[in-house]
């Protein structure tokens, strides 16, 4: 791996960029309000070697729980603000980094401009001595940039990221990192390569979002990471896997294995991911609204094995944050609510079904798609 040329950024006890060792991250899948379980998972991930552990916080109860979690661990913590950036002041005193998604800033306080909202977040970061991650996702690119670059989601994603970097520059805030994620490894490589060429100074967090179940999810991540790390692109990474809580540390193990292989020139041949059945599923995290999500993802993978030769993408999402938008590009999408599963065909809603019957309906839709392809 080449020496990266990014600047140094401190995240609590961790240092990344400027040639520092690659940092492996993971995220708690426990409910944030379950303090004991979350603390245990933080320790589980930390013991596996995670340099940063991310926790999702979306409301005052979770913010209050975070305060207690912080008192019980010395781990470097990051918080995911998702759609509710207004919780930032409540969580910043207890974490080392806050992550916001530029594509979610427009949801609330619509009278305020994006620069005003970013400036407010930067002030909170400064006051609390925390870093920021600007986390851009393919499934939630800011509508303003999608409108500016119609039909070119990749350009919209990259330009949105560059715009937020310029906002940081104008505010004189350099303690930030960036991530550009997609569920398609090829798009992850393109987005990060193009961004790194435009802003070689900004540290990059690498990830293939909704990579899915192992071993497929590890393969998808490896496809992207091998290409990027070999070019010296990437300062920190996460292998996002759909796993039960007791196995969540396998994300960290997989990340270190990929880094070690690239460092020692061990590049593995991988299947052609451009053809055949593609199952994508989001990593299990605290936003999951029903623990049956992981089991459902496993059942979907097993049930659809008969269709492996067909060019069909099925997305299985665990919550309302990733579910609605990030299933739109899939041929068939399932996003899991507390009691029912929403089934979609592209962006068209087909209805919501109980966890015990949704597989039967999914198979009907899959058979119909196969018949269309064969015709």
- The helix count comes to 12
Main sheet: strand order: 8-7-6-5-4-3-10-9
What about the largest sheet?
Answer: 8 strands, parallel
β-strand percent reads 15-25%
The helix-strand sequence is EEEHEHEHEHEHHEHEHEHEHEHEEEH
CATH class category name of the largest domain? Alpha Beta
Q: Report the helical percentage.
A: 25-40%
The mean pLDDT is 91
Structural class per helix/strand content? alpha/beta
Q: Based on the coordinates given, report the CATH architecture of the largest domain.
A: Alpha-Beta Barrel
What is the number of domains?
2
- How many strand units? 15
Description:
This protein is an alpha/beta fold and 375 residues long. It folds into 2 domains: 9-263, Alpha-Beta Barrel (TIM Barrel); 278-374, 2-Layer Sandwich (Sulfite Reductase Hemoprotein, domain 1). The protein has helices at residues 35-48, 60-71, 88-91, 114-128, 143-148, 153-170, 185-198, 216-230, 250-263, 292-303, 323-326, 358-374; strands at residues 9-11, 14-16, 23-27, 52-56, 77-80, 97-100, 131-137, 176-181, 205-207, 236-238, 278-281, 313-317, 332-336, 340-345, 348-354.
């Amino acid at each position: 791996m080449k020496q990266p040329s990014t600047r140094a950024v401190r995240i609590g006890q961790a240092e990344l960029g400027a040639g520092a060792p690659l940092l492996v991250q993971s995220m708690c899948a426990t409910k944030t309000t379950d303090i004991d379980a979350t603390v245990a998972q933080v320790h589980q991930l930390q013991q596996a070697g995670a340099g940063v552990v991310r926790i999702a916080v979306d409301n005052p109860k979770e913010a209050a729980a975070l305060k207690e979690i912080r008192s019980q661990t010395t781990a470097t913590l990051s918080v995911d603000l998702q759609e509710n950036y207004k919780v930032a002041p409540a969580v910043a005193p207890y974490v080392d980094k806050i992550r916001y998604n530029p594509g979610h800033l427009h949801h609330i306080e619509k009278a305020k401009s994006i620069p005003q909202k970013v400036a407010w977040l930067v002030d909170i970061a400064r006051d609390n001595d925390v870093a920021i991650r600007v986390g851009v996702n393919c499934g939630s690119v800011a509508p303003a940039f999608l409108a500016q670059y119609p039909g070119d989601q990749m350009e919209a994603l990259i330009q949105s990221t560059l715009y937020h970097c310029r906002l940081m520059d104008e505010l004189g805030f350099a303690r930030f990192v960036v991530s550009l994620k997609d569920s398609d490894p090829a798009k992850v490589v393109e987005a990060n390569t193009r961004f790194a060429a435009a802003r070689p100074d900004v540290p990059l967090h690498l990830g293939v979002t909704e990579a899915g179940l192992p071993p497929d999810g590890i393969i998808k991540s490896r496809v992207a990471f091998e290409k990027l790390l070999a070019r010296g692109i990437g300062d920190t990474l996460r292998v996002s896997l759909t796993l039960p809580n007791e196995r969540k540390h396998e994300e960290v193990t997989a990340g270190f294995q990929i880094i070690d292989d690239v460092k020692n020139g061990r590049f593995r041949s991988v299947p052609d991911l451009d053809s055949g059945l593609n199952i994508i599923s989001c990593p299990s995290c605290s936003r999951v609204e029903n623990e049956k999500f992981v089991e459902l993802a496993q059942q979907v993978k097993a049930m659809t094995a008969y269709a492996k030769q067909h060019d069909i993408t099925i997305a299985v999402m665990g919550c309302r944050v990733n579910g609605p938008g990030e299933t739109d590009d899939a041929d068939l999408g399932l996003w899991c609510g507390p009691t029912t599963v929403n089934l979609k065909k592209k962006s068209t809603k087909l209805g919501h079904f109980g966890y015990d019957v949704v597989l039967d309906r999914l198979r009907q839709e899959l058979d119909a798609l196969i018949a269309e392809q064969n015709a």
